[in-house]
Amino acid sequence: QVQLVESGGGLVQAGGSLRLSCTASISIVGINAMGWYRQAPGKQRELLAAITSSGRTNYADSVRGRFTISRGSAANTVYLQMNSLKPEDTAVYYCNAGVQQGTSYRGLDFWGKGTLVTVSS
């Protein structure tokens, strides 16, 4: 029903930038938003940013002002521009499709393999 492919991860130095890409194939009716998550070793997966089909965005406090989520011209493509990266940003990053309800994003339980981002100090 949902296939997700993340790419763009790699090894960068603190203070550097990286742009992640996500391409989704979605056959579920009603999806109106996509989001980016990350999971660091020993920690739970956390929601970082979400964007609706109308362009409304929301960010977690930990990345607000540094990360920017955007939609591409291609269908069901979303990007995450990451600037001023810190070692604590090291994690596997995942994208997700879901529904924006009010101010809350509710992602469906479909996940790709993720893309690893490692920030060295």
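Next protein, fold it too.
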Amino acid sequence: QVQLVESGGGSVQTGGSLRLSCAASGNVYSVHCVSWFRQAPGEQREGVARINRDGSSEYYAYTVNGRFTISHNSAKNTLYLEMNNLKPEDTAMYYCAASRLWCGSWSSAAWNYWGQGTQVTVSS
């Protein structure tokens, strides 16, 4: 089993930055793909960014490409999402997720572990 705990959310103004963290514990060696999702009120949950534990297959949703950066610190078992030039449409609950499969798609069946979420609010 793997436990994921997000932190770092908050309220910022348009153009601001935040860094989200996701601390993993448990059987972290079972994880191959790690990711960030978000869900805004009234909208479907969408994939934001993902990366394999070996650093390969880094991928971003078109809406955040160039503004967000996913990274991880294997020694600390921590995943990060650096968010820059935030926009009101980035407002959502952000979740980290992990898969026992290698990164390949956003398929819901691939995600074995989820965090509780951290709220990001961007005001204009």
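About the second fold: The longest strand covers residues 18-26.
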